[in-house]
Amino acid sequence: MLSVNPAGAALRTLGCFLLLALLADEAVGAEPAGGLPADGYQQPSTNAAKPDGEKERPLLTVGGHLELEFESETNYNLDDSEARDVATLEPEVELDLTFQPLDEFFVFLALKTKHEFALWEQGPNDDRDLEFEIEELYWDVSDVFLEGLGIRVGRQAFDDDREWLYDEELDGPRVFLSTGNLDLEASITRENLVDRDLLNAGEKGEVDQYFLYGQYNLHEDLFVGAYYFIFNDTTDDNDDPQFIGLRSGGEAIDGLKHWLEAVHVRGEEGSTDIRAFGFDVGGTYTFDAPLTPYFSLGFAYGSGDSNPGNGDDSNFRQTGLQDNDDKIGGVANVHYYGEAFQPELSNMEIYTAGVGFRPTPKSSIDLVYHHYRQVDASDDVRDAEFDADPLGNDKTLGNALDLILAYREIPNLRLELVFGYFNPGSAYGSGADDALFSGAKVRYLF
């Protein structure tokens, strides 16, 4: 790992930024593009016929973004008497390059450099190194062997609409087939098969992933889907869950958008058999009225284990690749399980209610409430943001309130402010104190 001081890190960050800017400026024939969509199969738009007067498809297109993000975590150990507050500032630059010599073939490369700086940090200091990443690098061929068939090989983004299944870049081959209203997808991947960060040695992935996914589009705004995911741990840990799931989403009734995720998990973790289930259901109704008001209701359930140690584990778990991030009516994504807590859905019931409106067509204000309960009282919460653990003698984890403000009216500019408040419940004991998250993000697309 590289050891960096703030001045040196700033110089290296500036150097990486200038390198990416130089690459963008020198790209011959380049024109702005927003990068390729990560969700599902789609190649860049082309002008294959090129009638007189129409623009030729560029050989190379360039896009990307500049971003500055501030985050503050206050009292994440739920103990006012032992300060562990931290605030960070992270500049980020991404450059997206698409080389497309043929309508049926292109190569995509996404380079990213970022560095997180601690503005203040109480307690142990975390290592924060300058990163220069190959975020994506793949080639794509489509409609050559069969109309509607696409093949993509390399490091690529896996990103479902709610990021409930995955939001990660994975290495390997992926096949897409679209026939009418039916979309099919199969892939064999591994995370970090090749080093992602060119400046810092990282851990190589040791879990193979086999994904099968099918989706039927009932119409443009409504779909149903099914999937079978297999994880094969190549180490002695033998963490091999399998996910069999059904899902649907979209607008079945005018103004009402719904989501439904239902999953059965089986497999093994070490010598323990996994048998668990979980679901997430809800919807957002948008009124046809001034300021476009909307409200959302949701309920998520992940089974618990009432008899740990009996050789079977009935605790639900997500894939480990998820981010649980989506729009709920506004123009910006929100962490729909809570901005401060951000738990993985496991041994938990999450009740959510939200309201919002749009002051302008491309801005929004969201206020979201969450109530958290464990299914079975436990002293562990799987993959949450807080350092504190519940005591294991009560199920009530607490309540949260989030405020999200987003503005998109200026072309290519995205502004966000996020505030998350968490009030711990009796599961953390009577002496647990409140936690607060605050964040701000500015992103410019080019």
Report how far apart the termini are. Answer: 32 Å
Please estimate the helix content: under 10%
| Overall geometric form | globular
Give unreliable regions as ranges: 1-14, 20-51
Number of strands: 23
**CATH domain class of the domain at 6-41 and 57-284 and 312-336 and 433-440:** Mainly Beta
CATH 2nd-level architecture of the domain at 6-41 and 57-284 and 312-336 and 433-440: Beta Barrel
- Computed structural class: mainly beta
| Rg from alpha-carbon coordinates | 23 Å
| Contiguous helical run count | 1
**Helix and strand element order:** HEEEEEEEEEEEEEEEEEEEEEEE
What topology emerges from the helices and strands here?
Blueprint: H1 6-26, E1 32-33, E2 60-74, E3 86-102, E4 105-114, E5 117-121, E6 131-142, E7 149-159, E8 167-179, E9 182-190, E10 207-219, E11 222-233, E12 239-253, E13 256-269, E14 272-286, E15 294-302, E16 312-313, E17 325-326, E18 334-335, E19 348-357, E20 363-374, E21 396-407, E22 413-424, E23 435-445
Parallel strand pairs: 1-2, 14-16
Antiparallel strand pairs: 2-3, 2-23, 3-4, 3-5, 4-6, 6-7, 7-8, 8-9, 9-10, 10-11, 11-12, 12-13, 13-14, 14-15, 15-19, 17-18, 19-20, 20-21, 21-22, 22-23
